[in-house]
What we know:
By secondary structure, this protein is an alpha+beta fold.
Amino acid sequence: MNRLLAINTLIExxxxxxxxxxxxxxxxxxxxxxxxxVVVSVSDAVSLPLPVWKRGSExxxxxxxxxxxxxxxxxxxxxxxxxPAFLHKHKDRMERAxxxxxxxxxxxxxxxxxxxxxxxxxxxxxxxxxxxxEVYKQLKRFWRGGKIKHxxxxxxxxxxxxxxxxxxxECRSDQPKRGRPRKILQLDPEYVGVNVDEExxxxxxxxxxxxxxxxxxxxxxxxxxxxxxxxxxxxxxNEGGVSVPVLPPASQLPSFQQxxxxxxxxxxxxxxxxxxxxxxxxxxxxxxxxxxxxQMAFGPGSIFQIDATIGDVYLVSxxxxxWIIGRPVIYFVVDVFSRMVAGIxxxxxxxxxxxxxxxxxxxxxxxVSFCSEYDVEIASEAWPCRYLPEMIxxxxxxxxxxxxxxxxxxxxxxxxxxxxYRADWKGIVEQMFRRANLKSIHWLPGAVRKRERGDPDxxxxxxxxxxxxxxxxxxTVIKYNLHxxxxxxxxxxDMIADDVPKIPVNLWEWGIGNxxxxxxxxxxxxxxxxxxxxxxxTVTPKGIRFQGVHYTxxxxxxxxxxxxxxxxxxxxxxxxxxPRSMEVIYLRASDGSSFDPCTLLPExxxxxxxxxxxxxxxxxxxxxxxxxxEGRRLQSDAALRAQVAAIKAEAAKMKEESGPQKQSNNQRxxxxxxxxxxxxxxxxxxxxxxxxxxxxxxxxxxxxxxxKGEMSAKASSSAKRKDFLDILKADAExxxx
Length: 737
């Protein structure tokens, strides 16, 4: 016969018809032949029965016949390694119980025989001065728990009826207060408190829903106070026109501790967080985190994550270092599989399609040439990303619109967008902003800092321009790709077998060799054709105007566009442009397959090497200056109109004083030529140069000899000029700042 039974073997008996009670027994001892077996029931946790003798052959036959089976899971297995803190706290009790039964359990099989067990137990009870009942209790616990010393630890989990509510159906005045007596009874014997019955429990549950699980976010103490005000008042009294609830003595009210106990016992934490903070905040900050983004990416290029943030630093303009242009926008494109930064973009325009497309275009750019534009020399192995991915995961802003259709239609890239307020869906790229801030941005001049009252304004420390800041971001990314260890990266078995370092560049290289086939490569022209932002330029007689800057191209000269614009009027043409440099824009062909480059006119060469954001900022500033000058212009024009009106009024008055006309209208018109000749003769005398000293520096009050009629005409003319010069002089003095 095969030996199916051993010490601590668990035998579970199948329920018999009409009795579904579980019967589980533990083997405590067997003889050498396996015929005599001692078992104890471990399913009865209340009475703790004593061991019984059985025949081994009968047990094995029951197992073979299907009436019983060997149970492989021991319900007391956790006793083999209890919680260290619990063991340390109750070790003395365990050692005391073990000292009482240690000599008894060694007497096998005599301890299992009733006639020998009784005297042994009585002797141990006398020796350790305990009741025999206590010795039996520790023996039964030792046998039931698997014959290990840890079985003698206190089983507090079986105390108190776990999971059962301690409610009473109805409170009565003659019922004693449940629970530990309050310490305040030493000062006030009447301060007994109340029991929580079903009705009070119902009020607790309703109050939690009304005053705690709400958008107001009341603390639990305030919810308790509102419950007392609304549901336990004895009425209201008028105090200064306000109805104030009248409350009974505190000893007749449920305590805050009772309210909190039932709240913590019954609360649905998920429902509570959603009710108080909203589902979006729960999903972002409180939901379980049971996976990671890397599981979605099988290899390099499977998924790129893209996102933007406002850099925490203020920059200055390249046109004028005294102009503070605000904080830049930073885009990162990160490969999910390797955590490699595949592309970046730094600009001033708010997060938009233009910025996102520039970042994606940068992801497909050869990084050696890109870095050389900013005087950074690297090897191609230091930043080997120049490809398009299978899928792009972004925000609902930049990649949610008609502009993103070109990614799917022309470049065969799937576009996915995160739900609103779910930045955790693209946590990999979000972490790049934190790292860039900690490693570089926070320590730059002009960095955003928390200001206390009296501290200098950090914006005035702005020193870097956009190009210099971009170079710093490039250096930060290169350092990250080559040396940052992604501690939380979940290496799979293949990576562990190949001992792959958790460095982005190493993960990328391993993925290219073992998980390739997800990257897309297209010609730079095709990518730019579908990624560069487009706009409308205006053909004018002065050139092709775009964003206030004028360009020209050989095609426009060859087809005489500027001549047509001057004779027939302006018209618009579609163009593509690179916001990083306004030196050239691209005139799109009608079929969209090619471009004609348009270069700056000579008078616009001030914008060489300048970004679009700075061009827009320059014209916007000029517009603001024009608006600032508008007040002075309006005042000057008003003064001029007033002066002209005064002169007109004076002329009209003089004409009226000259008397009625004695000539007909026809005679007046025929005399224009003669009158003009006379006036010219008089004006020539006034305008003639005379350099004689006595005429130039005559004594004050000296009159020059003139004919009588000439004197009268000249005096009238001089008076008029003097009045007008005085008016102009006064106006000029008013315009002085």
